[in-house]
């Protein structure tokens, strides 16, 4: 760790930020119109969590902490994947299987209760706090 940094380890189920992210309560407005939320990716590789993996118990390696999804999007990505292939296990899976648990591979996320949540928060927080919170849309606070 570098100077002035710290690491906090806790269950993601107890972390309020992670829970808000998981349920889509703290997405930015641009998340609902993301032009990158599709199968055709712009980077060499796309990396994320593999939600929706089929028969997870059949895997020949440890998976208790989850699985990662890596899309090879072009020739450069293929070269990168070959470079790292000795350091990890890879199993090729159908694209449709990945999309089942990762719908943002087809379309942007659907709008959530974000506006309602922020309106509720703004009622209970002092103005000195809400005015400094860059993640709260000012339009929402005025209503």
SSE map:
Elements: H1 16-22, E1 45-49, E2 68-72, H2 75-84, H3 95-101, H4 114-124, H5 127-130, H6 138-142
Antiparallel strand pairs: 1-2
SS-derived structural category = mainly alpha
For the record, give the distance between the C-alpha atoms at the N and C termini, rounded to a whole number: 43 Å
Number of strands: 2
Bulk shape: globular
Q: In DSSP terms, counting alpha (H) and pi (I) runs of 4 or more, how many helices? A: 6
Strand order of the largest sheet: 1-2
Low-confidence stretches: 134-143
Largest sheet: 2 strands, antiparallel
Strand content: 5-15%
Topology order in helix (H) and strand (E) letters: HEEHHHHH
**How much is the average pLDDT?**
77
Share of residues in helices: 25-40%
Quick overview:
The chain has 143 residues and is mainly α.
Structure explained in plain terms:
The protein is mainly alpha-helical and 143 residues long. 31% of the residues lie in helices and 7% in strands. It contains 6 helices and 2 strands. The protein has helices at 16-22, 75-84, 95-101, 114-124, 127-130, 138-142, and strands at residues 45-49, 68-72. The protein has a two-stranded antiparallel sheet. The radius of gyration is 19 Å and the shape is globular. Residues 134-143 have low confidence and may be disordered.
């Amino acid at each position: 760790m570098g100077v002035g940094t710290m690491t906090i380890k806790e269950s993601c189920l107890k972390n309020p930020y992670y829970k808000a992210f998981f349920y889509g309560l703290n997405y930015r407005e641009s998340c609902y119109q993301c032009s990158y939320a599709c199968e055709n990716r712009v980077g060499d590789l796309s990396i994320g969590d593999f939600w929706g993996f089929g028969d997870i118990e059949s895997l020949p390696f440890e998976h208790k902490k989850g699985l990662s999804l890596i899309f090879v999007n072009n020739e450069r990505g293929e070269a990168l994947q070959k470079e790292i292939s000795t350091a990890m296990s890879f199993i090729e899976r159908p694209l449709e299987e990945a999309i089942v648990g990762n719908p943002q591979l087809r379309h942007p996320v659907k709008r959530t209760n974000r506006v309602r949540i922020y309106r509720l928060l703004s009622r209970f927080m002092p103005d000195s706090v809400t005015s400094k919170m860059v993640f709260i849309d000012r339009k929402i606070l005025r209503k």
